[in-house]
Amino acid sequence: MDNINLDEMRLVSLSQEGDVDSFERLIEAHKQRVYNIALRMVKNRDDAFDVSQEVFIRVYKSIGKFGGKSSFSTWIYRITVNCCLDHLKKEGRYKYITDAGEDSPGAGVIENLRAEETPESVMEKSIKRDEIKKALDLLESDFRAAVILRDIQGFSYDEISRITNANIGTVKSRISRGRRRLREIYQELERRGDMNEM
Fold first, then answer.
1. Coil, helix or strand for 62?
2. What kind of fold does domain 109-192 have according to CATH?
3. How confident is the prediction along the chain (198 residues), in pLDDT tens digits per residue?
4. Vertex 77: Cα angle to 74 and 78 (nearest 5)
5. pTM of the model as a whole
6. What is the distance between the alpha carbons of residues 97 and 174, in angstroms, rounded to a whole number?
7. Is there a contact between 35 and 49 (Cβ–Cβ < 8 Å)?
8. Cβ-contact 163, 149 below 8 angstroms
9. Which residue from 8, 39, 151, 193 has the highest number of Cβ atoms inside 10 Å of its Cβ?
10. If one looks up domain 3-90 in CATH, what number appears?
């Protein structure tokens, strides 16, 4: 086990004993990624901030029950996704996606959203990236969560399975179908000329 995980486990243990400083260090280590996931899912900065605060409140209230069956990071990101879905349900913007249908290879469109650009490619890709974000905003909630976790946040299939509490087959199906649906939305928006109007 690496030093990061050992340090995280120590902070979790101290937090469970009521050490506020250790809890704040845990939150500090994960708050940006929690916010980024929330922002991609709820699509509004104020709502993403509110969701993030709800995540931290839930983590604080539940940390005593955290048993270490998964890593703390997996646990907090699962709470993040659940808080996002709860928010979307309250807003009437949540759509549940069934997992019937064939699994197909990803379209690869979302790769333009990855944070791996070199300085030379940032300007070239920035417009395209903004357009893909607009298409991502229209993607159904379960697909959006899976694609965000895989293609933007870089989680493995196994990590996404644990975060979303879904089996690997379901995760792969959602990612594959989400990528395909994202490309369809993107192409439709391009055909309609809606990219610059959204």
1. helix
2. Arc Repressor Mutant, subunit A (1.10.10)
3. 444 577 889 999 999 999 999 999 999 999 999 999 999 898 889 999 999 999 999 999 999 999 888 889 999 999 999 999 899 888 775 444 333 333 333 334 444 434 444 444 444 455 566 777 788 888 888 899 999 999 888 899 999 999 998 999 999 999 999 999 998 888 888 787 755 544
4. 85
5. 0.68
6. 9
7. yes
8. yes
9. 151
10. 1.10.1740.10
